[in-house]
Each structure stands twice: as C-alpha cells, then as structure tokens.
Amino acid sequence: MFADWKNDVSHVKKSFGALGQKYPKMLQAYGALNTAAAENNVLDVKTRELIALAVAVTTRCESCIGVHAAEAVKAGATEEEVAAALATAIALNAGAAYTYSLRALEAFNEQK
Question: Is residue 2's pLDDT more than 90?
C-alpha cells in the first residue's frame, strides 16, 4: 500500500508524461480512448470518475485508484458517493467470485 497517495499520484503523472514524451503515439492512443469515453458528455465528469474508481478497485490498479480518487475529489464527489461506487465494486467482485466458483465446480465435476 502507498503511504502517501498525493506523492504517488504526482509520481505517476510525471512518469506517465515522461513515457508519453518518449513514445508520443502511445500517449495519443491512450488519450483518444479517454476522449472517446467522454464523447457527447452522456456521463458527467463526477460519474465517470466514480466509475473509474470502482473499476480501478476491481482491476487492482493502485496507481489508478490514486489518480481517480484525486479526480473524483476535483469533480466534487462526496465520501458517500465514493463509498456507494466502491460498494458496487465490492458487490461485483463477489458476484464474479461466485460465478467463477460455479465454473470451478463444473471443471472439477467434469474431471471425475
């Protein structure tokens, strides 16, 4: 776990920028994904950041957690909204574990 989320976010952004300077096409492609995701403003920034934070938890990306937590703060998310988004991530992970458990049991039973 990171002891200092603000410094981690700063480090990630600096590192990301340095990598983007060295490989600009990669950074442009990544930026295009983010631009496409925000296209037409169907979801507001706060909602997108809450979703991003929940997805970051489900994908276990600590740097993503830090960056999107900071962006959620900037977008005006409340702790209650963040907790609700995280509860959704927790529920989804539990659901995924449940359905993969069913698959594991099927695999086990087919091996008999």
Answer: no
